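REVIEWER CHECKLIST
Item 1: Sequence provided? yes
Item 2: Single chain? yes
Item 3: Sequence as submitted:
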Amino acid sequence: MTGEQDILADEALSCDAITGDFRIYQRERGHRYSLDDVATAWEAAHARPDAAHYLDLGCGIGSVLLMVSWRLGAATVYGIEALPISLALAKKSVALNAVADRVTLIEGDHRERTADWTHPRCDLVSGTPPYLPLGTALPSPDPQRAAARIELRGGVEGYLLSASRVLAADGRVVVCADGRRPDRVLDGADAAGLSPLRRRDIWARADADGPLFSVWILGHRQAAPPEVEHLKLVVRGADGEQTPEARQMRTDFGF
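Item 4: Structure as written out by the authors:
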């Protein structure tokens, strides 16, 4: 614990509401939870509300993990995170919300940790991978911000492969991905032995040029995969007002 305290010693932190009664520690000038976390957690919590074992890959500061844990109050929860400062914040938030008895946080790269997985197979696996391949954007000088945007440890394809290794036979994988590149999810799913079941495009406004991102639900490959259900959620109407569907996401987390 001393090492984690040292990592955070000089950091200005905020402690913010993330569900009706859970709070999360975030660096004031670091990576902070956002809409893609909320949408992914919302889809995950509805994909397998009965999940007994749940894993969040690359859990970062614990935003998706905490939201899903709040909804799945009886689940045993795991999170894997490679960046020490993000892991330290996640541990601090888990302790604050008194869920350490059912949440296990694992330090390391999810590609390695899922290869030697010794815990029970998971009914639900989530992930919010970065969207920008190496070389396509200038990384932030802040390691936490850089890891959230740039595929320093791989992109959605790697997350899908990691998920497939630990997924229970009837489990569900929920990931967000670049809404402009559905081919990456489809190709990654095929390589990992998964079948996409549903895709929900998240649009910032009704009059936007395209989706901000997409949230996908997948399961183990089926002999005759069903047609992928394609849905759309608009956050704000053309008038700038939040839509009822967007408000429902926050309502479902106790707000």
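Item 5: Key structural point noted by reviewer: The first strand starts at residue 13 and ends at 17.
Item 6: Recommendation: ____
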